[in-house]
């Protein structure tokens, strides 16, 4: 039976919102680089398996794979590493709020990479307002009790990486979508290769003494018993939060378009905050709540459809560009 897109949309919001909780649990026994690598590897295996079962082919070798390597870095490797790095210093709830800045960054990168899409006055005001919300969250007027600037900054950079990555996809890969899971499978495959190399480098830098005793790249900082739940959390993060989420994401976008698909961005921080409070007993101070509300309001304004002038043929200017976008401004994709 065909699953309604609204069900897939709700599943995406829950899955991506829960990813911040799962990363926090994973940090109890694993390093951020290990979390990112295990997440990408298991996600790649999940999507590749689904693609093979569906008989989907991968893109042909050449230019597309070069662009996919860049997209895989900005959409997977960099944010999947920065989020757990940030969560070593801030709560999972605050990391989820940092992810909400993705639409703001997407506007800035769109102006740089897609000059044909002009930033109107309303969008510009929304971007400025969103960044003011970030300032409210950071509470620079407080000497104590404010969020860790470096930790929260890492989550903001991770969210900005999504904005850059999806804008890059729109600029260089919009016409190379071969349908099905071909493009996301290839993207995760390139990211898996990159993170495997990064993990080997991290492993070498963390060798003990003269290198005669080097812990395995998958070794944990906890005993085998206490590491079980963190490992299961990261496996769930990879299989469900990355693999299944990629499948659902492309399904939703192809069914209802990128504009509606991108609205999941507004729900993810709410889910992340609720799960962090309920399961990890995290707390947010009022400036963080107020700043998050400002950022989300700005993101909603940015995501609202705009009226465009009609051409002589009756089509709306920019329709071809919007219809060519195979993916939304992702988050969680966090």
What does this structure look like?
The structure is a single chain. By secondary structure, this protein is an all-alpha fold. The chain has one domain (5-208, 216-305, 318-323). Helix content is 68%, strand content 0%. It has 13 helices and no strands. It has helices at residues 5-26, 32-53, 63-87, 92-99, 102-113, 121-138, 149-172, 182-205, 228-256, 258-261, 264-280, 286-303, 319-323. Helix 1 packs across helix 11 (264-280) and helix 3 packs across helix 8. The longest helix has 29 residues, at 228-256. It is globular, with a radius of gyration of 20 Å. The two termini are 29 Å apart.
Whole-Å distance between the termini?
A: 29 Å
Count of DSSP E strands?
Answer: 0
Poorly predicted tracts of residues = 210-214, 311-332
Mean pLDDT: 84
Counting DSSP H or I runs of 4 or more residues, the number of helices is 13
Strand content: under 5%
């Amino acid at each position: 039976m065909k699953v309604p897109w609204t069900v897939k949309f709700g599943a995406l919001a829950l899955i991506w919102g829960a990813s911040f909780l799962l990363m926090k649990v994973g940090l109890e026994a694993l390093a951020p680089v290990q979390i990112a690598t295990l997440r990408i590897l298991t996600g790649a295996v999940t999507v590749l398996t689904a693609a093979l079962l569906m008989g989907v082919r991968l893109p042909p070798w050449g230019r597309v794979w070069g662009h996919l390597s860049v997209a895989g870095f900005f959409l997977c490797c960099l944010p999947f590493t920065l989020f757990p790095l940030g969560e070593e210093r801030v709560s999972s709830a605050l990391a989820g709020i940092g992810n909400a800045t993705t639409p703001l960054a997407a506007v800035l990168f769109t102006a740089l990479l897609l000059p044909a899409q002009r930033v109107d006055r309303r969008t510009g005001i929304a971007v400025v307002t969103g960044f003011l919300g970030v300032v409210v969250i950071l509470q620079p007027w407080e000497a104590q009790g404010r969020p860790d600037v470096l930790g929260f900054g890492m989550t903001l950079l991770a969210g900005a990486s999504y904005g850059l990555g999806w804008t890059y996809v729109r600029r260089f890969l919009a016409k190379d979508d071969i349908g099905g899971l071909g493009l996301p499978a290839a993207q995760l495959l390139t990211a898996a290769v990159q993170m495997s190399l990064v993990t080997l480098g991290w492993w070498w830098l963390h060798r003990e003494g003269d290198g005669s005793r080097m812990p395995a790249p998958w070794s944990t900082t906890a005993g085998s018993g206490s590491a079980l739940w963190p490992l299961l959390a990261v496996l769930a993060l990879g299989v469900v939060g990355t693999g299944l989420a990629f499948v659902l994401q492309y399904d939703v976008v192809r069914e209802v378009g990128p504009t509606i698909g991108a609205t999941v961005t507004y729900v993810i921080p709410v889910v992340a905050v609720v799960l962090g409070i309920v399961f990890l007993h995290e707390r947010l101070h009022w400036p963080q709540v107020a700043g998050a509300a400002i950022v989300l309001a700005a993101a909603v304004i940015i995501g609202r459809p705009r009226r465009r002038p009609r051409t002589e043929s009756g089509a709306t200017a920019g329709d071809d560009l919007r219809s060519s976008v195979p993916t939304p401004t992702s988050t969680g994709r966090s």
